[in-house]
């Protein structure tokens, strides 16, 4: 029962630590600080439990390490599902499909910026959208051009007003 408790609480600790990183990187500092308090509290209690009598019972360390493994994996899945933030997606588009692609993207609520056209009949299209909508954006683009290359960057707003 002790091993299972160590394993489960280590998973919870690591998953919350990942969530804390996500919320802090998206500007939610107070919520991040509260999560850090919880993570630290769990870590102190858990580590104390594991270290108590570790020479006689190495199983606690193994349960701790396995929980860290599972917690790290769960945290990455959690990060993928939550997908907070806004991204800027860049794609080079052939001018022959540009109009249709723009209409489809706008119809789905995405903000578009045409960066430049070049002599090769191509336009760099920048699409601003929620990170959660990455698959929708990709599906729309690949529906028009199966060989498209999409570059995605996280947007951090520096200032809205000077």
UniProtKB/TrEMBL annotation:
Residues 18-75 form the DUF5698 domain. InterPro entries: DUF5698, UPF0316. The keyword Transmembrane applies. The chain crosses the membrane at residues 30-52, 58-78. Keywords: Cell membrane, Membrane, Transmembrane, Transmembrane helix. The keyword DNA damage does not apply. PANTHER family: UPF0316 PROTEIN YEBE. This is DUF5698 domain-containing protein. It comes from Candidatus Coprosoma intestinipullorum.
């Amino acid at each position: 029962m002790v091993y299972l408790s160590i394993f489960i609480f280590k998973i919870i600790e690591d998953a919350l630590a990942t969530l804390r990183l996500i919320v802090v990187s998206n500007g939610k500092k107070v919520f991040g600080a509260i999560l850090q308090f919880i993570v630290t509290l769990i870590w102190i209690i858990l580590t104390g439990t594991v270290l108590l009598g570790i020479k006689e019972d190495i199983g606690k360390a193994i349960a701790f390490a396995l929980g860290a493994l599972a917690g790290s994996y769960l945290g990455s899945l959690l990060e993928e599902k939550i997908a907070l933030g806004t991204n800027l997606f860049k794609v080079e588009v052939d001018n022959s499909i540009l109009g249709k692609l723009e209409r489809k993207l706008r119809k789905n609520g995405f903000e578009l910026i045409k960066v430049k056209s070049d002599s090769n009949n191509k336009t760099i299209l920048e699409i601003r959208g929620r990170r959660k909508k990455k698959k929708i954006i990709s599906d729309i683009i690949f529906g028009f051009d199966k060989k498209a290359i999409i570059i995605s960057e996280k947007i951090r707003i520096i200032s809205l007003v000077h």
